[in-house]
Specification:
7 helices; 6-stranded mixed beta sheet; Purple Acid Phosphatase, chain A, domain 2; alpha/beta; single chain; 291 residues; binds manganese (II) ion; 22% strand
Length: 291
């Protein structure tokens, strides 16, 4: 932000350079940490020099056990940057949700469960980050997935509608703060465009169209999700909101995006090491469209 002005005698100041606000967003999902996982101390080393915040889009742990959460907290603890996370379906297997939240909070990880934060960068740029897990439910008959059928489908649709309403409420509240840049993190996908090689029969487990509809009623510069391990990184909602699936099995390492207002998303940094052993297989390039 800000501008450099050159004052010429007898003339109005001339604007020689104007920068737009931007934020560098590090992102990863589906690291599925187990109690015996070895945290990679180099995964986050120096990350704060190339990114302004880290987003973890769910499935931090494999079973939601406190022992797993403690390993995750140790991995995140050393980094001085703000960390925003949502729970994934695997994290939600754990019953001690409050203990999980507190353990992560002690290491600087803020869980967003239908909540948002406004994070102000040193240059004054205000970045809104909203987060919610989302649900399955599917993307409708156009995408050929039948869903589980019967009572389970009805229950899932009710849950999907409730989650969509929750998402709508948090995005409305965040908008009222008028952040310069708006981000959303979910675990489930709001679009089929990042589902890549996932079989359509599984779509109802991976996300739902209602999330995308809500997103497109608001202005977001980037949506980050995970969960679809066989999906692809780059997609968008039907309304053109950029979406990135950062499930670790796909991206292999923490991604760093450069996000400007007006939905301009580019890569801000090269490959980084994985966050926990076993390290995912290295992947060449960023423009993968499947697996
Ligand atoms: Mn998941």
């Amino acid at each position: 932000m800000g501008q450099d002005a050159r004052v010429v005698p007898g003339m109005e100041p001339v604007v020689t350079h104007q920068t737009t606000p931007f934020v560098r967003v590090a992102a990863i999902a589906d690291i599925h940490i187990r109690a015996n996982s070895v945290e990679r101390t180099d995964a986050l080393a120096g990350l704060h020099e190339v990114a302004d915040m880290l987003i973890v889009a769910g499935d931090i742990t494999d079973m939601g056990r406190i022992a797993e959460v403690e390993v995750a907290a140790r991995a995140f603890d050393p980094t001085p940057m703000p960390i925003f996370a949502v729970l994934g379906n695997h994290d939600r297997r754990g019953l001690r949700r409050m203990a999980m939240r507190k353990t992560l909070a002690r290491s600087g990880v803020q869980l967003l469960d239908g909540e948002y934060r406004i994070h102000t960068l040193p240059d004054g740029t205000r970045v809104g980050v909203a987060g919610t897990t989302g649900t399955g439910g599917g993307f409708g008959p156009a995408h050929g997935e039948p869903g589980p059928g019967g009572r389970l489908t009805r229950a899932m649709m009710i849950k999907a509608r409730r989650e969509a309403a929750r998402l709508d409420a948090v995005l409305t509240a965040m908008e009222e703060e008028e952040p310069d840049i708006s981000l959303l993190v979910t675990h489930f996908s709001p679009t089929v465009s990042t589902l890549g090689a996932e079989p359509p029969l599984k779509y109802w487990m991976l996300g739902n169209a209602g999330l995308g509809e809500v997103i497109d009623r608001h202005h977001l510069d980037l949506v980050i999700h995970g969960h679809a391990h066989l999906g692809n990184e780059i997609g968008e909602t039907p309304g053109g909101t950029p979406v990135r699936n950062v499930a670790a099995p796909i991206v292999g390492h923490i991604m760093v995006y450069h996000v400007e207002p007006g939905r301009r998303v580019t890569y801000a940094a090269g490959p980084r090491p994985g966050i926990a052993e076993p390290e995912p297989a290295p992947v060449a390039g960023n423009e993968r469209t499947a697996r």
